[in-house]
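Any chance you could type out some protein's one-letter sequence along with its backbone structure tokens so I can compare the two?
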Amino acid sequence: MFVMKRNGRPETIVAGEIKPLPIQFQIGYKRWRGPSLRTLFIHRYGIMGPQNEGFWSNLGGYLEWMLLYSMVEAVLCRDFDVASPLYALDFVHLPWPCRYKTTIVQEHWYLRDEDGIRGHRRRHKNFWRQLKKSTHRIKNRLGEYPQVVCYREPEALVNLLRDTEEVAQKTWQRRLGAQSFTSQEVKDRYTHFLGRGLLKGHLLYINDGLPVAFFHGIEYVGKFYAEVMGYDPDHKREGVGTYLMGKLFEILLENHDQTYTIDFGVGNSQAKSRYCDSYFSAADRYMVAPTSRAMTLNTLRVIFLLFHLSLKRMLAKGGLYQKVRSAWRYGRRN
């Protein structure tokens, strides 16, 4: 943790974590894990307090110092707005192979509740019309309305992870390598947040207890941060994912005395535009220490990334991007 002071008093806090992180190589949805580097990880939400020009100048100098003197092998700043001063920092004392600016820019979507669920229904009429259709399809095909259960107590951990894993095994995210909910890392994370009353794990059940969709998030100080979501593709036609999303909005956006925000995180998704209010362009900033090993790995990472971005532009220009994207995600199911 770094603390920036003014006149001897704390003004801005930067919460980060130093840990081994594998360097990532990516082409499309295919990712490979390379060797791990001792990395300082800073998320956008880890910065609390004023962020003026002086703050960014001081932070940039400190990060550069840590890399130049091998305090860490890499620095990863995650999910920052590309319009933020972070991307204007040049780190001129680092060789160019340490600080390539090539990166993937994604949309970070969110919705802000200023007038309750009625306001959301008014702003996003198409989504609520689609939800109404999904509700009728579910009732007609399954003969009943699904049940939404919100798990938020520590005692619910076993049921929450078991039922989520049952759905997650069938999702496109798992096909592309998403983490299992039976892993010890996930168990520890969920135990931590459930114990502090911050985690809400929503699951949708049909047929007297069959889980078909999930949506988990962290709720803190007027914001709900979406963690993971997914649905059983065998029930895609019924729209179980849309149904759970609508019920989630009804639960979260009702009866708040202050503005409430639901943050859906990064992801270039046309679907999110149907129910979110806005987005900003977000990207990671990644730098490595000036060692031959780190610079070689970083250069190789950027070569893969340039190929990924070039392939994406070529497919988009030919009108094939969405088709290839869907085929890669859903395979024969699409």
In short: The mean pLDDT is 89. The radius of gyration is 22 Å. Residues 2-105+282-333 form one domain. The chain has two domains: 2-105+282-333, 115-258.
